[in-house]
Specification:
Layout (H helix, E strand, L loop, with lengths): L9 H9 L11 H13 L2 H8 L2 E3 L5 H21 L8 E3 L11 E3 H11 L4 H29 L7 H23 L4 H15 L5 H9 L8 H30 L4 E2 L11 E3 H26 L5 H4 L15 H12 L6 E2 L2 E2 L4 H26 L7 E2 L6 H20 L2 H8 L3 H30 L14 E5 L5 E5 L1
Parallel strand pairs: 4-8
Antiparallel strand pairs: 1-5, 2-3, 6-7, 9-10
Helix pairs in contact: 4-6, 4-11, 5-6, 6-7, 6-11, 7-10, 7-14, 8-9, 13-15, 15-17
């Protein structure tokens, strides 16, 4: 402590104890001098040392969160490039670019700038496709990460808050993906925006006001492109950055969870230190993720807006499937019966239940599951060791049933395409998907529950007997010797 009662940093403590300034010592390297100078002014040496010594469990499933973070970084980088050329305006203009089928057509400024970015700007199409593919993969990885946490019970005390933050990141990812998908103002994305507007105004009492706020009036409007642009590049990324910082910060404050087995206990973490092992692993994983996204963006076409044409309210493209992460909503709207109840003299639109109530109920169950599970199991202990999925049959069955609902609805969103490939009528497929949406989750819940119950009596992977092999042991001289297992 200094004379004023303030805590000293490490450099100041050494200076006070020995009278030697570590930053000015004759034998100090330039790096040591720089580190000492920074520590004197920030006191971060202790925090940095603690961070570098943090232990990360050695299991591939823990890398899903890192892949999601790396995808976010790639999205920010490619999105920044595209903002230099994108014009967030629905004002009409005449296309004069190199794509002959659109020559002389009246299009919006937004659509015109996206086509020019794709076909005129060097590397513009590559950046667009890398951005779009990364967004698709990003949502998938976030869902996989949340599923891993859910099925292994990683949300239990004291990590309920971090579960809510992670779930919020999924909601932000869906909103970010949809707003970005709508910005080109092409025929396909315009159809999706019209569906979103219909769902918004179907909410009793507040729906019309919400639709007017988000879309700038009765759809189609000239205001929705710039408003979606603000949401996509300012508000949602800021929420993302804050939520990611809070999520990662809590992971560092609360030690990592880990799978059972070996030396793992509730009061320790077995794995590699952040520096150098985990840092180099993460760096390699980042470059691998970026390489895969670049490969997909360069070789696999996605969202060719010039082929769809500009958005026109009186025209709907067919087939018209959105990106997969909102396809379930499209499927729910397609197969839900035309049911419009009248409550207190107010007619509830048919899109309200499949477009708002159903997803709201499912998302709410997932978000509050940690508290529901604690309420019904009366388990208030802290948990740092993860369950194997079969160790909680009810949790595993519920998670599988919820995933089944979304899977069936996603397939239903392509009923018109499936009807062509399967040579069936759309009406027949709609009936099949209606039956699967109701009965499928129930059947899956029962099957998964019974399978988990039957698995409970068997040894866990870490308890299974070893099957032969050779074990290497380090000798005192630094070499290795073989021993039979």
């Amino acid at each position: 402590m200094d004379p004023l009662g303030r805590p000293l940093n490490e450099a100041a403590e050494e200076l006070q104890a020995t009278g030697r300034d570590p930053a000015l010592a004759e034998d100090a390297t330039e790096l040591e001098r720089l580190v000492g100078w920074l520590d004197e002014r920030t006191g971060l040496a202790g925090l940095v040392r603690t961070t570098l010594r943090k232990v990360f469990p050695d299991h591939w499933s823990f890398l899903l969160g890192e892949i999601a973070l790396f995808c976010f970084v790639i999205l920010v980088a490619t999105g920044t490039f595209m903002t230099f050329f994108f014009v967030p305006s629905a004002a009409p203009t005449t296309y004069q670019g190199s794509y002959a089928p659109l020559q002389g057509q009246t299009v919006s400024e937004a659509f015109n700038s996206v086509v020019n970015l794709s076909l005129e700007i060097p590397a513009g199409l590559l950046m667009r496709q890398v951005h779009h593919w990364t967004a698709v993969v990003f949502v998938a990885v976030v869902i996989a990460h949340l599923a891993r946490v859910f099925f292994t019970g990683g949300f239990r005390r004291p990590r309920e808050l971090n579960w809510l933050i992670g779930f919020g990141l999924l909601v932000f990812a869906l909103a970010e993906g949809f707003t970005g998908y709508s910005l080109p103002d092409d025929l396909l994305s315009g159809t999706g925006a019209r569906i979103a507007y219909s769902v918004a105004i179907s909410i009793p009492f507040i729906g019309p006001y919400l639709g007017s706020l988000v879309f700038g009036g009765e759809f189609p409007t000239a205001a929705f492109v710039p408003r979606f642009f603000v949401l996509h590049v300012m508000l949602l990324p800021a929420l993302f950055a804050g939520a990611i910082a809070a999520h990662v910060g809590l992971v560092f404050l609360q030690k990592h969870t880990q799978y059972k087995g070996g030396r793992a206990r509730e009061d320790n973490v077995v794995g590699r230190h952040f520096w150098p092992g985990q840092a180099f692993l993460s760096a390699g994983l980042f470059f691998l993720t970026a390489a895969v996204m670049a490969l997909m963006g360069g070789l696999i076409q996605i969202n060719p807006v010039w082929a769809y044409g500009p958005f026109e309210p009186a025209i709907v493209s067919s087939p018209a499937q959105p990106d997969w992460y909102v396809g379930w909503l499209d499927g729910a709207l397609r197969i839900f019966p035309p049911f419009e109840p009248v409550i207190l003299g107010i007619t509830i639109p048919s899109v309200f239940i499949p477009g708002f109530v159903l997803p709201g109920a499912l998302f709410t169950v997932v978000a509050v599951w940690p508290f529901l599970e604690r309420r019904f199991t009366h388990d208030t202990r802290e948990h740092h060791l993860l369950d194997w999925p079969w160790e909680s049959p009810a949790r595993a069955a519920t998670g599988a049933a919820i995933l089944t609902v979304f899977a069936v609805l996603t397939l239903a969103g392509g009923n018109d395409v499936l009807a062509i490939y399967l040579d069936l009528s759309v009406e027949m497929l709609t009936g099949i998907f209606q039956a699967l949406a109701v009965g499928g989750p129930v059947v899956v819940w029962i099957l998964v529950y019974l399978l988990c119950r039957s698995r409970l009596g068997r040894p866990a992977p870490e308890d299974a007997p070893q099957r032969g092999g050779v074990e290497l042991r380090r000798t005192a001289s630094g070499g290795f010797e073989e021993s039979e297992r």
